[in-house]
Specification:
This protein has about 200 residues and is of the alpha/beta class. α2 crosses α5. The two termini are about 15 Å apart. α8 links the parallel β5 and β6. Strands 1-6-5-2 form a 4-stranded parallel sheet, with helices on both faces. Helix content is about 35%, strand content about 15%.
Length: about 200
């Protein structure tokens, strides 16, 4: 079930309390996401976000803020937009670009599980333009939903969640548009820690 927060093939844990994804990264969803992300068809953001809202109803419920996974500055300049920001904008809760990439990272797609984790280790931090008052209002003691387009092993999302929890977030949840597979057997590294809304 692509909307399930647990996968029988998962290994390790992702330090979030609740997670959902819109569907498997295949077929029509893959083609739509490719058109949105690489052909710059940004008008697809609202319908794709609608799929995320439907799948992520529990994730978004009572959420204080949505935080999109950031792109590095040069990749943002090359692509012209951050797909995670476009998706987050249509989800409902306020959007805060609270994270930044401290350094450029290699594309995750060709990497294995361990290489992906090493690739993003220390790559994220709290955005330097985020003032203390903004952190206190939107992050500290708050329920934060991290948003991205695709999850595979969860390395990127785990790195983002760690930064937000260290900043004082009470709870970090995850919502992605699609879930990709790594090789033939590995699924996303998505085993939520027990939280107040984690299904039993």
């Amino acid at each position: 079930d692509p909307a399930s927060p647990r996968c029988p093939l998962c290994q390790g844990t992702l330090d979030i309390s609740l997670a959902r994804t819109g569907g498997a990264y295949e077929g029509p969803l893959r083609r739509l996401l490719h058109a949105f992300k690489y052909e710059r068809r940004r008008g697809l953001a609202p319908p794709l976000s609608s799929l995320m809202r439907h799948a992520g109803e529990l994730v978004l419920r009572d959420a204080d803020v949505v935080v999109p996974v950031p792109l590095h500055a040069w990749r943002r300049l090359h692509r012209g937009f951050n797909q995670a920001v476009d998706l987050a904008t249509h989800l409902g809760p306020p959007v805060l670009q609270a994270l930044w990439r401290r350094r450029a990272t290699a594309p995750q797609a060709p990497l294995g599980r361990r290489a992906r984790a090493r690739n993003v280790d220390g790559a994220f931090g709290v955005a330097p333009w985020l003032g203390r008052r903004t952190r206190r209002r939107w992050l500290e003691g708050r329920t934060v939903v991290v948003v991205d387009d695709v999850i595979t092993t969860g390395a990127t999302l785990r790195a983002c969640a760690a930064v937000l929890l260290a900043t004082g977030a009470r709870e970090v949840r995850l919502l992605t548009l699609a879930r990709a597979t790594l090789g033939r057997t590995a699924q996303d590294n998505l085993v939520p820690r027990r939280g107040p809304n984690t299904p039993t």
